[in-house]
Amino acid sequence: MRISHRLPAAGYRLLLFATIACAKPPTAAPEGERAVVRQPVGPVPGVGELPSAPNPLGNNRDVLQEGRRLFVQYNCSGCHGGRAGGGMAPSLRDRIWIYGSSPDHVFNSIAEGRAHGMPAWGTRLTDRQIWALTAYVQSLRTKDEPEAPKP
Amino acid sequence: MRKLAVLILLVACKKEAPSNLSPQREGAVTAVEGQKPEVRLIAPLANGDWTLPAGDYAHVRYSPLAQITTQNAPNLRMVTALSTGIARGHEGGPLVVGDTLYAVTPFPNNLIAVDLTKPGGQLKFLYEPHPDPRAVGIACCDVVNRGASYAQGKIVYNLLDAETVAVDAQTGRELWRTRVGNIDKGETTTMAALVVHDKVLVGSSGGELGVRGWIAALDLATGREVWRAYNTGPDKDVLIGGSFKPFYPKDQGKDLGATTWPADQWKLGGANVWGWISYDPESNLIFYGTGNPGVWNADLRPGDNKWSCSIIARNPDTGEARWAYQISKHDHWDYDEIMENVLLDMQFGGRMRKLLIHPARDGFMLVLDRETGELLSADKFVESTNWARGFDLKTGEADEDERKHTGFGKIVEHICPSSTGAKEFVPSAFSPRTGLLYIPAHNTCMSYEGIEANYIAGTPYLGADVKMYVGPGGYQGELIAWDVAGRKKVWGIKEEKLPVYSGVLATGGDVVFYGTMDGWFRAVDARNGTVLWQIHVGSGIVGNPITYLGPDKKQYVAVYSGVGGWMGAVADPNISADDPYAALGVVGAMAEIKRMTAQGGALYVFGVQP
After folding, report:
1. Which of B46, B192, B546, B576 is the S-S candidate for A91 at Cβ 3.0 to 4.6 Å?
2. Taking CA atoms, what residue in B is nearest to A78?
3. Would you state the pLDDT for residue A5?
4. B-chain residues within 8 Å CB-CB of A117?
5. Banded model confidence at residue A13, pLDDT cuts 50, 70, 90
6. ipTM, 2 decimals?
7. CA–CA gap between residue B135 and residue B107 (Å, rounded)
């Protein structure tokens, strides 16, 4: 039987605060919501927060919808899951960003591809499309997520 | 039942078996003590060694070894636990040849040879083939491998990156290595290669990436490809010629593998061969099932889509097709029919028949005449099955419930079984002493919406938004004992939260072995399902147990632990529990598994304490 490593919400926030350099950017969902069974309690792996330019498209509703549409159209959903929860490829809904979580990191991961099967989309998609996908990926688990899975 | 279960080996093989058919240390056994009079076995059983993926060619997965009995099974103890060092899903099972046990791991597909004469599972050699790591990203359902074959001093198996290797069983030296597919097109190889005569039979995976399915034969001595048959396209590619005699008119006609598709869609048409191959040495035919048609969204491929979701009989030496039977035309549900085909001669419907028993992914127990491909019976073995009411034995067609047909832009609710099936690829076992087939079954349903799909080579080609959930009745898994001749369930052992995703082993001591996804390994009474013994191992079981005689002439049972595979992949921390559509829809049914087990591959061996 697996033991839940979930901490009380307040303690968890404190811990996050203490390891702020490695935490997710403010686009991440607030604590305490449903269904995430495995909550990391230590520093989250990845390059953490480095200076990053904002997404030039912003993250308004239309951009997020466009990103969601592209996510299905270009078969991202086939690997990363219908609502980006993972499958053949890792979840984009969790806190773990192997290649960085800032807008330009996410953009680069899509454009350049990554090891173990992520194709390089830089020659297939326009910059605008990649920024829209970036905005969608960063909206996951927030109140702005389009077509969010129902609990 | 008799109290003495000591086995007397009745060697009843009248025919001269070809020299390299399944080498068996204790002799070729095709009849066992206490066998039901209405049953006739057609191929030598695994008896001491375990040299083929199922142990035997007819895929009965029964060993006459009978030292472990219903009386002493409670004294089973762990003999060896050996980590493979790999976290992903450990499907398939080990081989035993003489004093050596061979385990093939998931990607990176290492071959671990264990010296059984030494205590504690000492390494004899480790062969590391280093397949292309890009293959990891195109494997639909975890980076699994379903086993190997032993023949003529070689261990032969597939690597994830669409290569087949032959390794010297004594030294671990690579003898040949053949590229059989192209990962840039999404082709992988996960099935267990089967050696028949001097041919290595291998098949493709990639039904979720628009791969055109095939089966190929390589020369055992050199690895050179001898023939290749596609399962879609014109007859010449499918190796359909003059000897092709399908039973039903629906399966007769020219170039059906091309004409039952729109335009060139058959080139992306799936029908892959990622499950098991059975072989009948008497008729010299192989039998295998084919996977789903590509693309999942059925509206994008009007027509019957042959030869997806079919059973095909071929000559193993030439590849020529003898017959084919399409189980469900124009698949709406991703019902790959790559399940095992159990070959038996048996009294059925009043006379002795040459049977092919196919516990189908679609929830029906299909019994065919393997000489002709005629469907003799079709009975639901999982009650919730609702995509069809039954099969018309005259036409071979399923009586489908059209309300369960999926398509573009509509969400069809409560389809049972889900795409993962009323059973998965994990194989059943048959005991000639009980006449029962032991089926690892699922009770999972789904909602299914057809959405757009674009073919981009090497990426998923689906067009479906699927969400699975536990079926009605308060359980998701069951080990079912099915009376083949009586066409009914006799007993079952239910699992509340998880499907039964391990293969089954039946033995001469009337003990049946199987595992659960939360890590229980069980010995149960073959006659009534009483649990005689169980042990909890390190990780969920999705592998197939085998049994063998050790160098000390004692009977052992071996199985992999290591949760994974399509449904088991949800235990992977890289998959989130809060997206029921994740992992092609299985998270909806499997999120609980994260609380019940965790990844980690190991080989376990059990034996009876004196």
Report:
1. B576
2. B460
3. 40
4. 134-138
5. very low
6. 0.90
7. 9
Domain that residue B539 falls in: 39-73+86-608
Residue A91: inside a domain, yes or no? Answer: yes
Residue at B388 is within a domain: yes
Say what the pLDDT of residue A40 is: 57
In 3D, which of A126, A147, A127 has the Cα closest to residue A136?
A147
Domain for residue B81, yes or no?
no
Q: What CA–CA distance (Å, rounded) separates B147 from B157?
A: 7
- Exactly one of B49, B208, B304, B336 is catalytic; name it: B208
Residue A81 C-alpha, separation from nearest chain B C-alpha, in angstroms: 4
| pLDDT tens sequence across B160-178 | 999 999 999 999 999 999 9
Q: Is B208 a catalytic residue?
A: yes
* CATH number, domain containing residue A121: 1.10.760.10
Residue A43: the pLDDT is 63
Peptide bond into B559 cis (omega under 30): no
**Residue A144 falls inside a structural domain:** no
Total number of domains constituting chain B:
1
Indicate if B334 belongs to the active site: yes
Residue-level pLDDT at B120: 83
A1 and B585 in contact by Cβ < 8 A? no
Q: Is there a contact between A37 and B594 if contact means CB atoms under 8 Å apart? A: yes
> Of B458, B465, B576, which is closest to A94 when you measure between CB atoms?
B576
Closest partner residue to B583 (CB to CB) among A34, A81, A124 is: A81
In whole angstroms, give the CA distance from residue B139 to residue B133.
11
- Name which of A78, A79, A81 is nearest B579 (Cβ-Cβ): A81
Q: Is B292 designated active site?
A: yes
Which pTM does this prediction carry? Answer: 0.91
Residue A74 inside a domain? The answer is yes
**Domain carrying residue A135:** 61-139
Residue A38 pLDDT greater than 60, yes or no: no
Q: CB neighbours of B258 closer than 8 A, spacing ≥ 6?
A: B232, B233, B234, B266
Tell me, yes or no, whether A122 lies in a domain.
yes
* DSSP SS3 for B540: coil
Helix, strand, coil in percent for chain A, rounding step 5: 35, 0, 65
How many other CB atoms sit within 10 Å of the CB of residue B185?
17
Total structural domains within chain A: 1
The tens digit of pLDDT for each residue in B82-115 reads 999 999 999 999 999 999 999 999 999 999 999 9
Asked whether residue B452 is assigned to any structural domain, the reply reads yes
Nearest-Cα residue of chain A relative to residue B449: A82
CATH of the domain at B532: 2.140.10.10
When pLDDT is cut at 50, 70 and 90, the band that residue A48 belongs to is: low
d(CA A92, nearest CA chain B) in Å: 8
Q: What is the DSSP string of B222-245?
A: T--EEEEEESSSSHHHHT--TT--
Residues of chain B with pLDDT under 70: 1-27
